[in-house]
Amino acid sequence: MSADVRPIAASELPDWLRTVNTGFLTASGVTQSDVAQRREHTDLARTQGAFDTGTGRCVGALRSFAQRLTVPGGADVAASAVTNVGVLPTHRRQGLLTRMMAAELTAARDRGDVLSTLIAAEYPIYGRYGYGPAASLREWEIDVPRTGLDPRRPVPADGGRIELVDAAQARLIGPGLHERLRAVTHGAVDRDARWWSLATGLESVSHRPYQEKFFAVHRTADGEPAGLVAYRADGHWTDAKVPLNTVQVTDLIALTPESERALWHFLCSIDWVLKVRTGPRAPDDLVDQLLPDPRAARTVTAADFLWVRLLDVVRALEARTYAVPGELVLEVTDAAGLADGRYRLTAGAGGDTGSGAARCERTDAPAGLRLDVSALGSLYLGDESAVRLAALGRITELRPGAVALADVLLRTARRPWCPDVF
Ligand SMILES: CC(=O)SCCNC(=O)CCNC(=O)[C@H](O)C(C)(C)COP(=O)(O)OP(=O)(O)OC[C@H]1O[C@@H](n2cnc3c(N)ncnc32)[C@H](O)[C@@H]1OP(=O)(O)O
């Protein structure tokens, strides 16, 4: 089989979308309204197809979009977010994804993107293209009667209050809250107006129809919104007429620990609700520790989530801050030849860069450690430990102490978190 890999034309969108839906096992067909929506929200120049030269049919798909990713310290960098990756089952393992990824990553580097991001469907796919798992997620199921929370007192004692709002109000309050959360959460990505339209039912796509939700806002004593939760209940009862509802949280934004506490307490105080599923949270989220009995919260998912592939090491390392000052020379290998080289990172460079800031430059100086760009992706947001990667053979220490220094420099006190699937 031979295939052309290239950006698609507008007329090829239905065929391309059919390939995405088939790859994701969601549907074999597409509706006209799906195609019209895609046309409106898709940059065709960033939408690649692999076309079988025999049949002319689209057999592979991938697209990217511009994204902002918050890095440690609160700055955000230009990311190329990769999504909708699929190859038809009849054309797999013939190198089509490899060709589409090569085209996408080269284009992203040439556009000036600092890095590329994605949520990996399966773990083994993307490491070969230079991505590393950079932020993970954890989901808990809370056994409400075990929590020790007083269901009669869901109202915060500090004068704050919980207010049920409708979807339109959530759409008004949510974006501002999310922007404030994103500014202090490394690993978080921006949400556009469409994200809120889809999350609040203003817009819907046929393979993911909007399901009604409840929304509650936490306001501080002075009336300012400090948190928002969106949730659904499953309506489950036993045959003996005993309520057994599970609440599924679809989004919970809280700007302060007080707001987190108030929102979780509220959810655990709703009549008929025996279990609360938290939805994907940061791996070090406070939710279990906010309960009088933390064992009431059982981890149901703990997995890799956001993957990062560095394209511009200098800008990436200068964009984030570091917990301590220090200097490290990294020898970065990259089979794709996009980010390889030797770099000197000087953290806490001082001067007008500020104490937590850094300088990074290419250098000929001897390197302290050697690592693949995928390992650097795993270290970048502060989640992974350089010591662990060295133990796994993914970092080679060339100067004694360099791995321990990298660990202290790059890790962050709170772990990164990406709240969004994209
Ligand atoms: C960001 C996102 O959108 S994630 C969604 C990804 N899409 C899916 O998972 C949908 C179902 N899967 C598919 O459509 C395809 O199998 C894809 C897109 C994952 C891979 O496409 P292919 O064209 O088969 O990949 P390609 O032939 O380029 O594979 C390159 C290498 O990766 C390996 N590989 C590809 N996919 C997988 C996988 N799922 N598991 C393990 N290895 C894989 C191949 O074996 C090959 O290895 P090799 O070079 O050692 O032989």
Layout of helices and strands, plus pairs?
Layout: E1 3-7, H1 13-23, H2 32-41, E2 47-52, E3 58-70, E4 76-87, H3 96-111, E5 115-119, E6 132-143, E7 161-165, H4 167-183, H5 193-199, E8 214-219, E9 225-233, E10 245-254, H6 257-267, E11 273-277, E12 297-310, H7 313-319, E13 326-333, E14 341-347, E15 358-362, E16 369-372, H8 373-380, H9 386-391, E17 395-397, H10 402-410
Parallel strand pairs: 4-5, 10-11, 13-16
Antiparallel strand pairs: 1-2, 2-3, 3-4, 5-12, 6-11, 6-12, 7-8, 8-9, 9-10, 13-14, 14-15, 16-17
The structure holds acetyl coenzyme *A.
What does this entry look like structurally?
With 422 residues, the chain is of the alpha+beta class. It has three domains: 3-130, 3-Layer(aba) Sandwich (Aminopeptidase); 138-302, Aminopeptidase; 313-410, Nonspecific Lipid-transfer Protein, Chain A (2-Layer Sandwich), CATH 3.30.1050.10. It contains ten helices and 17 strands. It has helices spanning 13-23, 32-41, 96-111, 167-183, 193-199, 257-267, 313-319, 373-380, 386-391, 402-410, and strands spanning 3-7, 47-52, 58-70, 76-87, 115-119, 132-143, 161-165, 214-219, 225-233, 245-254, 273-277, 297-310, 326-333, 341-347, 358-362, 369-372, 395-397. Strands 1-2-3-4-5-12-6-11-10-9-8-7 form a twelve-stranded mixed β-sheet, sandwiched between helices. A hairpin with a 5-residue loop joins β8 (214-219) and β9 (225-233). The two termini are 31 Å apart. The mean pLDDT is 95. Acetyl coenzyme *A (ACO) binds next to β4, α3 and β5. Keywords: Acyltransferase, Transferase. This is GNAT family N-acetyltransferase. One of its GO terms (biological process) is aminoglycoside antibiotic catabolic process. Acetyl-CoA binds at residues 85-87, 93-98. It holds the Pfam family Acetyltransf_9.
